[in-house]
Design goal:
about 230 residues; alpha/beta; Rossmann fold; seven-stranded mixed beta sheet
Length: about 230
């Protein structure tokens, strides 16, 4: 654990902390978590109830969004979790793919899913380490989803939104799921209706759409429109 001196004058998280942060102050989410454990308070002023999400949004303001990986807002995460509880009909563990800070895991636990029934998968080691700290009872896997080759009966995910990334993700999902396995995904709006290029339709034909609904919140760092889609492997 990295040690930090207590900050006498804390800036507000929104629009101030990362702008005015001194080099000796916490920067990464893991460092902020260390500071919280050491001093019983965050290194910034914050009145919300989900500082990991809000802190990462603030960091993205200064560092940008990587790989079109937009963070799942709270209400959207809750809707995805509620649909997962509704549509997942077996007792197999739920894979939270591209889990990030654990927005979907947080929502699943709030829906009554025991943390031991969740597996978080994240390619970014910094985020994966932080996820493991927040959810020590869950299993945390570090690496690209493409490296996972075991069966994933239940999947929730907000994958990267670049078209090639979405196609790759769905192609991978088709390989690790068997007929009847299901997923609840946050996808670019209208993606599952795409007709071109041809490979997209070939991939989508491997799934049946059980439910779809527009995302009602906005992402923090983009105007991209998304929808929640429940898929079943054919």
């Amino acid at each position: 654990m990295k040690r930090f001196e207590k900050i006498a004058k804390r800036y507000a998280l929104a629009n101030s902390y990362f702008k005015n942060r001194r080099l000796i102050w916490p920067d990464t989410l893991c460092e902020i978590h260390d500071y919280l454990q050491q001093h019983g308070e965050l290194p910034f002023r914050y009145d919300g109830d989900n500082w990991p999400y809000d802190a990462l949004c603030e960091r993205q303001k200064r560092r940008g969004v990587r790989l079109s990986q937009y963070l799942t807002p709270d209400a959207t995460a809750r809707r995805i979790a509620a649909l997962a509880v509704r549509y997942f009909e077996n007792d197999s563990r739920i894979m939270d793919v591209c889990c990030g800070t654990g927005q979907l895991t947080r929502a699943l636990i709030a829906e009554g899913v025991h943390p031991s029934q969740i597996v978080g998968l994240e390619v970014d080691r910094e985020l994966a380490d932080f996820y493991a700290r927040l959810y020590p009872v869950t299993q945390t896997l570090i690496g690209p989803y493409r490296d996972i080759d075991f069966r994933c009966e239940n999947v929730v995910a907000n994958p990267p939104f670049e078209t090639t990334e979405v196609v790759d993700f769905l192609s991978w999902l088709a390989k690790v799921q068997q007929p009847g396995d299901r997923s609840v995904l946050l996808l670019p709006h209208g993606f599952i209706d795409k007709q071109r290029p041809k490979g997209i339709q070939e991939t989508l034909r491997q799934f049946k759409v059980l439910y779809r609904t527009p995302m009602q919140e906005r992402f923090a760092r983009t105007n991209v429109i998304a929808e929640i889609v429940v898929l079943e492997r054919r």
